[in-house]
Amino acid sequence: MNNIKNSLFYVTVIGGFTALIYWIISKGATLEVGRNIVKKSVESNHWKDFLHSMVENLQHPLAILLAQIVTIILVARLFGWFFRKIGQPSVIGEMIAGIVLGPSLVGMYFPEFSAALFPKESLGNLQFLSQIGLILFMFVIGMELDLKVLKNKAHDAVVISHASIVIPFALGLSLAYFIYGTYAPLGVEFSSFGLFMGIAMSITAFPVLARIVQERGMQKTKLGTIAITCAAADDITAWCILAVVIAIVKAGSLASSLYVIGMAILYVIIMLKIVRPFLKRVGDLNATRESLNKPVVAIFFITLLISAYASELIGIHALFGAFLAGAIMPENNKFRNIFIEKVEDVSIIVLLPLFFVFTGLRTQIGLLNDPELWKITGLIILVAVVGKFFGSALAAKFMGQNWKDSLAIGALMNTRGLMELVVLNIGYDLGVLSTEIFTMMVIMALVTTFMTGPALDFIGFIFKDKITAIPQEIGSKSKYKILLSFATPEKGKKLLKIANSLVKKQTDNSIVTAMHLSLSTEVHSFDIKEHEKKMLLPVIEESHTLNQDMVSLFKVSNDIDSDIVDTANQGEYDLLLVGLGQSIFDGTLLGKILGFTTRIVNPDRLIDKFTGKEGLFENSPFDERTRHIIAKSRMPVGIFIDKDLQEVNQVLMPVFSKDDAFLIDYAKKLINNNGSQITVLDAGGEVKNTREIQETIRSIEQIAPNHIMIMHDKTLKKEFLESQDLMIISLDSWKKLIESQSIWLNNSPSVLILKP
Question: Which are the contacts of 744, defined by CB distance < 8 A and separation ≥ 6?
Answer without folding.
Answer: 714, 715, 716, 717, 718, 721
